[in-house]
Amino acid sequence: MPKPWNRRGGNRAARETQILGWLFVIPSLIAVAALVLYPMAHGWWQSMNSGGFLFGEKPGYVGLRNYRDVINDPVSREAMAHTLWYVLLAVSLELVLGILVAVTLHRVFRGRGFVLAVLILPWALPSVVSGVLWKRVFDPDNGLLNSLLMQLHVINQPHVWLAAGRGPIVYITLVHVWGVLPLVSLIFLAGLQSIPDEVYSASAVDGAGPWRQFRHITLPLLRPSMAIALTVGTLLAISIFDEIYVLNGTALNTRSILIQVYNTTFAQADFAHGTALAFLLAAITAVLGALYAIALRRSTV
Amino acid sequence: MTSPGWRIAKLVAVLAIIVWSLGPILIGVSTSLSTQREVNAIPTRWVPHHPTLQAYHDLLGGTSNQRAGGTVTEAGTFTRSIYNSAILSAVSTSFILIFATMAAYAVGRLRFKLGGAVLALLVGTMIVPIFVVVVSLFKVLAEPPVGPSLIDTKGGLVLVFIATLTPLATWLLYTQVREMPTEPEEAALIDGCSRWKAFVRIVVPQMSSGIAAVAAIMMLSVWGEFLIPLLLTQTMNAKPVTVQITEYVGKYTTNYPILAAAGVLALIPPALLALALNKRITGMLAGSS
User: Fold this and answer.
1) Which of A70, A108, A229, A242 fits as disulfide partner to A127, beta carbons 3.0 to 4.6 Å?
2) What is the pLDDT at residue B143?
């Protein structure tokens, strides 16, 4: 039996709320379903099917074979090793430098507003543009870094490490960190702001100097911020693409997993193995994300 | 903390932050004002001896292959890519803000059935790495259920940006809705205002500072997008500046002045936006983490 909604007006308002609620979320839901969830399902299906006519085989369901292929593929393996380097280097640099920046900018001083405004600029720029700005610095022939080192008589001739071996991975990471550090610094700055001043003044009464305060108060209390920074830093570094593409293209010595996905899918038109590698990367990301979430919960309890 | 040693250390640290942040930008400006000859000079010139706008002239007006040293530019191409980026940023951001404001209010305030599930779904999508979507997006956009292919159109890109960025915008605004006082809206409802009117007249103005910050973050995100438009555009019909700029990177030699000029022009809009709204942006980024 329908309730007499006109008696108190409450039911009518409640129904209006229900309808409005759904009307308000439907545009977002449709967009996400059509252009995120559906392509994802499509890609998942594709990763379980053979590459088809391009490779002279019958298209059809092959289960996890594409995944096995990419795991056994030496180039993909190399890309995974490179990605591990990118993540380890980027995250450790971001954590150390981020804490240093945050500690420097924590207390109010003259010009702090200006420094904060300048600080976020690298984050606001497209990572492609970061790559463009840094490219001349690391040019292996006549780059600014080589010239500087030669003028300082650190080296006698242009150094090839900028072009070969692990060198390019290091400087591409540096360019990546340039763009991400502002975000990580802000995370630590927010963390520092949440530590009450009384903790410091109490420990000062007990005779603790700045170093001991940093070691025994700041660092432990920053652990939740560290977990967040670690997560953000890892997610951004594990999918590194733009900086590599600009600074070294799809060259083998700096290829990350995502560059390999791009190369497999679009240069070799092998959608099946490309999507398999992409989902493999997503799985790794998800596992890391879950581990960090557990670490974050531990650090806040 | 105020001993002279600490103060000097702090001063050095502050200077280091400024140099680290601005250095590459200044190098870019300096390079864009050089000629190819000055870039190749030994010893290196950090600042050109004879500053010139030639690189900008070549970039915007087009140039013969020889003078630009390996980099070919065509008149109007770069300006067209800047125009595309501006349209993409403005249109995508407008739609994202409308969708996300409504969704954030709905899941944050309206007690409607399955509201929690909707929030979980949107936040879950935020975690989906874009690269598992991007490969298949090409096929989805090439053969949409209705209408012609959306590959290489600004409309197709706008749809993709809306879908991929609305969840983040919703989350950022949701955290704000939860912290806003509810009294103004309740007072309006008691006065007989409908929920829709209360939303438009009371809640949206209350959210305005958050919306401004999210608008800036979304514009910066769309302007900086690279992988998605790299895969989904082919011609100047939709190609944004981030994709166009990589075409000035030579395979063997690069004309640094032209490349740097493109970089400087591409960074001016986001830099101005970040400087103008820096307090709101830093507040939102730090607050919602």
Assistant:
1) A242
2) 86
10 Å Cβ neighbour count for B273?
A: 19
User: What is the count of residue pairs from A and B with beta carbons less than 8 Å apart?
Assistant: 281
Under 8 Å CB-to-CB from A116, ≥6 apart: which residues? A105, B278, B282
Strand partners of residue A61: A49
Task: Give the DSSP letter string of A32-76.
Answer: HIIIIIHHHHHHHHHHTB--GGGGTS---B-TTHHHHHHHH-HHH
For position A2, what pLDDT does the model report? 43
Whether B44 sits inside 8 A of A151 (CB atoms) is yes
Q: How far apart are CA B13 and CA A174, in angstroms?
A: 18
Q: Residues of A with CB below 8 A from B254's CB?
A: 135, 139
Q: How far apart are CA A217 and CA A230, in angstroms?
A: 20
Distance from the B164 Cα atom to the nearest Cα atom in chain A, whole angstroms: 7
Q: Is the pLDDT of residue A161 over 70?
A: no
Contact A36 B249 (CB under 8 A): no
* Distance of alpha carbon A44 from alpha carbon A38, whole angstroms: 10
How near does any CA of chain B get to the CA of A179, in Å? Answer: 9
B41 — phi, psi (to 5°)?
-65, 145
Dihedral pair phi/psi, residue A234, rounded to 5°: -65, -45
**Which tokens in the block code for residue A119?**
């600080």
The larger pLDDT score, comparing residue A4 to residue A183, is at A183
Per-residue pLDDT averaged across A275-289, rounded? 91
Output the six-digit token pair for B119: 């929030």
Q: Measured between alpha carbons, how far is A264 from A121 in angstroms, rounded to an integer?
A: 34
Contact yes or no for B140 and A210 at CB 8 A? no
Residues of B in contact with A35 (CB under 8 A): 133, 137, 140, 159-160, 162-164
- Out of B43, B131, B259, the one facing A147 most closely (by C-beta) is B43
Residues B233 and A219: their CA atoms lie apart, in Å, by 47
Residue A58: per-residue pLDDT: 67
Q: How far apart are CA A150 and CA A144, in angstroms?
A: 10
By the 10 Å C-beta count (0-12 exposed, 13-18 middle, 19+ buried), B86 is classed as: middle
What is the distance in angstroms between the Cα of B262 and the nearest Cα belonging to chain A? Answer: 9
Query: Which residue of chain A has the CA closest to B30?
Result: A133
Please report where in the chains the tokens 């439907």 appear, as a residue.
A26
